[in-house]
Amino acid sequence: MSTLSGVTTRSVKIDSRSQVQRYAFLFMRLSGAALLILAVGHVVIQHVLNTSTNLTIQFVAEQWNSWGWKTYDMLLLAFAIVHGFNGLTNVLGDYIHNENAMRWVKRIIVVFTVVTIVWSAIAIAAFDPAIVP
Fold first, then answer.
1. Which CATH architecture fits 22-131?
2. Could you tell me the pTM of the whole model?
3. 2-4 and 7-9: which strand pairing?
4. What does the DSSP 8-state code read for residue 116?
5. Tens digit of pLDDT for each residue in 14-52?
6. Distance between CA atoms of 78 and 72, rounded to whole angstroms?
7. Beta carbons within 8 Å of 42's beta carbon, 6+ residues apart
8. Residue 2 and residue 9 in contact, taking contact as beta carbons nearer than 8 Å
9. Which of 22, 55, 121, 128 lies at a 20 to 30 A Cα distance from 9?
10. Is 40 exposed, middle or buried (0-12, 13-18, 19+ CB in 10 A)?
């Protein structure tokens, strides 16, 4: 550190790891806001505007007959999964202090996240409302 006219200055070194953490932090805030809108909308549509006795496979088939509803549900699913697994990574980072072990845990979580999103998006996209009785 150096002092210039009574002001202390220091240089900040930014590495790629802190940039990833910064974007993960920003994503948590933005996805939380998106989830608030999507999840509250989902609860209002599914449980307030419709009765719980109306929530049948036929009701879902009618909704998923439209790509708008499929997209809405895929976005809700993707944001919730990534937000949750990002939070899980943060919690595990508090308890796993070995950098190599944490690196492997993060890799496993990323693979599991991608597989879960792709698998569930395929299930939603491939759902055929015509087969529902």
1. Up-down Bundle (1.20)
2. 0.76
3. antiparallel
4. H
5. 666 678 888 888 988 999 999 999 999 999 988 888 887
6. 10
7. 72, 73, 76
8. yes
9. 22
10. exposed
Q: Of how many residues is the chain composed?
A: 133
Looking at the chain, the whole-number percentage of residues with pLDDT higher than 90 is: 56
Structure tokens at 99: 């950098």
Give whole-number Cα distances, 86 to 43, 50, 111, in Å. 23, 32, 12
What is the rounded CA–CA span in Å between residue 13 and residue 49?
Answer: 53
Query: Other C-beta atoms within 10 Å of 82: how many?
Result: 20
Q: Map residue 14 onto helix, strand or coil.
A: coil
* Dihedral (CA of 59, 64, 69, 71) sign: positive
9, β-bridge pairs: 2
Half-sphere exposure of 127 (CA within 13 A, CB side): 23
User: Is the Cα dihedral 23, 24, 25, 27 positive or negative?
Assistant: positive
